[in-house]
Design brief:
This protein is α/β, with parallel strands linked by helices. The protein has 9 helices and 9 strands. The protein has a single domain, classed as Vaccinia Virus protein VP39 (Rossmann fold). It has a 9-stranded mixed β-sheet with strand order 1-2-9-8-3-4-6-5-7, with helices on both faces.
């Protein structure tokens, strides 16, 4: 039982997960309910326990370690590095954001290699980064064994970080690749997503909008399993659940495990895929 008295939905080692997802041999789920499994722990350690070729895709938003030019800057808290002056602090810190670029490359290569083993052949891995870490992230994806396929851009719109006399840092990037060759089946998905940063729906200082994540999980086959090794407040897991997919998340902090549990435990009606919505919109226009 957690120290704060929160209830965990947990399986014993002898009880198979009700969602049908394979359970690691050592790590016990923090939550396992309605097709969503969350493990609390170090991402690399938990990934080493997950069975090979057990997920269809990996979509994640690791700590970028990009805030600050010098060692002292990087060692600052994430709220100090990423909250603009004058903003009201709404979210807590998160861990693992203090590596220099060489350490970041080494660390990413380790957990991405484990993700490669866990990903089914032909499956996709996609991870967020910013402009500072974009080059090293493309190196890390390939060092982990994936075939680098391209870069997508999340356009945060004109609301993002205005600075006089400079180009606006308006985008974050999605570096993606595949485990071996890919199928030519499935929808043609966009490579640029124009979605404003959410206000009330943002539960984590680095949280991504739910609308954005719902679009990204479309790379996973319908009914497939999405893995997010740095699930934070659970937006990727929630998007997978709401689009009829299963999800596995890993998070090291009690605070974010609790938030993710609350969000994904909410009952939702199945949301049609974006492809189905597009087909509906086209047929409506024809009528």
């Amino acid at each position: 039982m957690p120290a704060r008295g929160r209830k965990k939905i947990m399986n014993t080692p002898s009880t198979p997960p009700p969602s049908g997802l394979a359970s690691p041999s050592c790590s016990l789920p923090f939550l396992d309910s309605a097709g969503v499994t969350i493990y609390k722990g170090n991402a690399l350690a938990v990934l080493m326990d997950l069975p090979s070729e057990s997920v269809d895709c990996v979509i994640t938003d690791p700590p970028y370690s990009s805030g600050g030019m010098y060692r002292g800057d990087r060692a600052a808290s994430t709220t100090a590095k990423y909250v603009q002056s004058g903003q009201v602090l709404q979210h807590g810190d998160f861990a693992g954001d203090n590596r220099d670029q060489r350490a970041y490359l080494s660390w990413c290569s380790l957990w991405l290699a484990e993700c490669l083993r866990i990903t089914k052949p032909g499956g996709v891995c996609a991870l967020f980064t910013d402009w500072r870490q974009l080059p090293v992230t493309t190196d890390a994806l390939q060092a982990g064994g994936y075939i680098w396929r391209g870069i997508g851009a999340w356009d945060k719109t004109e609301a993002a970080r205005p600075m006089k006399g400079r180009f606006r840092n308006q985008c974050e990037y999605l570096v993606w690749g595949s485990r071996g060759g890919m199928s030519n089946e499935g929808p043609c998905l966009p490579g640029v997503w124009r979605v404003t940063v959410g206000g009330s729906e943002k539960h984590h200082i680095a949280g991504k909008p739910e609308k954005l994540m719902q679009m990204l999980v479309e790379i996973c086959p319908a009914g497939g399993t999405v893995l997010d090794p740095f699930c934070g407040s659970g937006t990727t897991l929630k998007a997978a659940k709401e689009t009829g997919r299963r999800a596995i998340g890993i998070e090291i902090a009690d605070q974010w495990c609790d938030v993710a549990q609350d969000r994904v435990a909410q009952d939702v009606l199945f949301t049609p895929s974006l492809e189905e919505n597009a087909e509906h919109d086209i047929s409506a226009e024809r009528r």
